[in-house]
Amino acid sequence: MRIPPPRPDSLLGGLRSPVYLRWQAGLQVFWLIALIQAPLAVKGFDWTWLGPTLASIPVYLVCYVAVFVAPLSRLPFHAGAIVALGFVVWAVNPVSIGYVVIGVTLLAYARRARAWLLGVAIATLLTLGWVYAFHVPMVHVLVVFGVGLMAGFSNYLYVRGARRDAELRLSQTEVRRLATLAERERIGRDLHDLLGHTLSLITLKSELAKRLALADPARAQQEMEEVERVARHTLAEVRSAVTGLRAGDLASELVSARLMLEASGIALSVELPDGLDLPAQTEASLALVLREAITNIHRHSRATEARVIITRNGQEFSMRIVDNGCGGLAAHGNGVSGMRERVRQIGGRLAIDSPAKQGTALEIGIPAHARQAGGFA
Q1: What is the rounded distance in angstroms from the CA atom of residue 173 to the CA atom of residue 73?
Q2: Looking at the whole model, is its pTM more than 0.85?
Q3: What is residue 307's three-state secondary structure?
Q4: How many CB atoms are closer than 10 A to CB 367?
Q5: Rounded Cα distance, 167 and 14, in Å
Q6: 3-class SS of residue 317
Q7: Which class for 98: exposed (0-12), middle (13-18), buried (19 or more C-beta within 10 A)?
Q8: Interacting residues of 119 by C-beta distance below 8 A, sequence separation 6+
Q9: Is the dihedral of CA 365, 367, 371, 377 positive or negative?
Q10: What are phi and psi of 293, to 5 degrees?
Q11: Is the pLDDT higher at 23 or at 372?
Q12: Helix, strand or coil, per DSSP, at residue 34
């Protein structure tokens, strides 16, 4: 069966198709084998149970796929249809209790937990009714109630965290977009202020030198020397403005890091020297390393506090990123290899201390000879 692409307002579309949901969706379909195999082994071949069971499978698959790819507002309807399907088939095939349990746990993906909890309550009461109507064992009531709550709670926690991560990614993208837009506007104003008057002055002096070229060559030469001096001075100011634009990259990344961690309930403290004085390539690499480290803290550390300490000792530079999380960061996992490569390219070193359950500390050091090679003043 070809699965249609998820709509933007669907569960998969809203969460940017997380791997967990795709894996879970594929895995749970395999229980359909037990739906047929178990009663076949107990009752043998009989169309009285096999016919309704086979007819229920296409309905289940359509509703199950719709839970993930259809609009999220219709998720309770599709999950509820699976629950209803389970009760209808239950009279001839007891294994269809799986439909009921799966439908109830899928309700936990809805926007509100109320739909899931209400679904658990209704399904439990209906199962109790089935106990008396069809002599279903009482243990099935506990199965529907217990599994519906426990598996549903797991789904609820996951999707809540996934939605928060998706919102954070969107907010981070928006923050970077606005920061870039603000920098463009600033550099545009700076260049206008720098070049507007200067270019007018150069134009006037060039026209004057042109008129004096034959009448007073010495004066014309003096004017052109003045034009050259003004042009060189303006070029230096433009380079200074562009350098100022690039120098804000690491500072902007620290602002984004604070937004990401504090939105996740992790307090971030930052210690900075008076000036960074970093070349563009070095600062860009350090900003990417900082972004990767902060992302690891957000996703994997389960920390409550984090610190970024940037220090300068003469011509040496160091950046230390610390958290109080679970530790156990692999030496070559979670983007560490990429961080090592970026630090190596700028002549620095990366040290990791991550004992289990004692937090993680990353320290990036750039020695004096690397700074000089990189063009530091």
Answers
A1: 26
A2: no
A3: strand
A4: 15
A5: 9
A6: strand
A7: buried
A8: 76, 79, 80, 83, 103, 104, 107, 148
A9: positive
A10: -65, -45
A11: 23
A12: helix
**Mean per-residue pLDDT, 187-197:** 66
The predicted-structure confidence for 49-65, as pLDDT tens digits, reads as follows 899 989 999 999 899 88
What are 299's two structure tokens?
A: 């996703």
Residue 316 near residue 367, CB atoms below 8 Å:
yes
Provide the b/e sequence for 129-163 (b: ≥16 CB within 10 Å): ebeeeeebeeebbebbbebbbebbbebbebbeebe
Q: Which residues contact 285 (CB under 8 A, 6 or more apart)?
A: 342, 343, 345, 346
From residue 320, give the alpha-carbon distance in Å to each of 270, 351, 364.
Answer: 10, 9, 6
Tokens standing for residue 90? 């239950």
Q: What is the pLDDT of residue 363?
A: 93
Amino acid at 298: H
Task: Tell the residue number behind the tokens 């007891």, with chain if given.
Answer: 94
Whole-angstrom CA distances from 249 to 19, 56, 158, 327 are 32, 57, 33, 28
Query: How is residue 70 written in tokens?
Result: 């259809």
